[in-house]
Each structure stands twice: as structure tokens, then as C-alpha cells.
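Thread: "does anyone have the structure for this chain?"

Original post by V.I.:
We have the sequence but no experimental structure in hand. Need at least a predicted one for the grant figures.
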Amino acid sequence: MTKTCGFTLVELMVTLSVAAILLTVGIPGMRDLIANNRLTAATNLFVSSMNIARSEAIKQGRDATVCVSTSLAGCTAGNWQQGWLVWVDTDQDGNLDFPTEVIRAVQPLATSLQFTSAQNSFSIDSQGTVDNVNALLNVCDDRAGEVGRQLRVLATGGISLNSQFGGC
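Reply from O.Q.:
Generated one for you, C-alpha cells below.
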């Protein structure tokens, strides 16, 4: 009697059917996981930028600013999703000019994200307090429902997060 190795056609078809069912169930969940991670990453990037600005303002005893920047060369009007700068005003003139040091320059975010606010900048003084108290920033993507994030900038420089924000 000879021994043969391999699969029968029935075994192959059953395996392919199970794989197709698993992919059909798993792919939509993976898409949501990736979208949620993008929202979280954008939110964390802004929060860390504010924390760096607050830390540097206190450490250096000078005002720090986080502002929208479309060109990454200076503060501009626009949306936060276009990018932003974190800088400390070393010469105390309120402008981003030489010899002012840019601490962080954030590139534009993914096109599927909307990062909006009525504020184009936040100024943090040497005590760590923020000028635009209770300013709201909304981080949303192209999905419907309560999947966005809403950030509230507090007077102390801290940030409050509403992760079930549905006003996108």
C-alpha cells in the first residue's frame, strides 16, 4: 500500500470557506481599529504638544505658544489638521522670529481627519496657565456617530478629553 500526501478537494474547499468567513467578519473590525488609532494618535500628538509647551514655558520662565502653521515656518490662520508649531518666545516680543526656537513642528495630519477649533493658537505663560480658557478642539474622521474626540484646554494648561464626542 502506498501512502500519499496532500489535501483532498473537499478539505481544500472547507478550509477556503472558513478563511473567507473569518476575513468577512474581521476586515470591518480592523478598519475601525485603524481609524480609532488614527484619532487617538492625533489627539495624543496635540496633548503632548501642549504639555511640551507648558513644560518649556515653566522651565525657561518665558511664554510658549502652540499655533496653527500651514507652512511650518510661522503661525498662520487655518485648521489644526494642516499642522502646528510649538515655540518659546525667547526675546519676549510675541512673534516667531530669530532667535526664537521652534520646539516641535507637526506635519499635516491624515486627510481623513478633521481637527477644528475656533482658536488658532494657545499661549502659555511662565506659570503654566493658558490664555484661551475652555477652548474646544474637535478631532473627527469621516465616520458617522460618536467616534470623535473633543479636547477642552483648561486654565491650568491641562486638557480634558471627551472620547464619546459625536458632534462631528
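V.I.: this helps a lot. The mean pLDDT is 86.
O.Q.: and The first strand starts at residue 64 and ends at 68.
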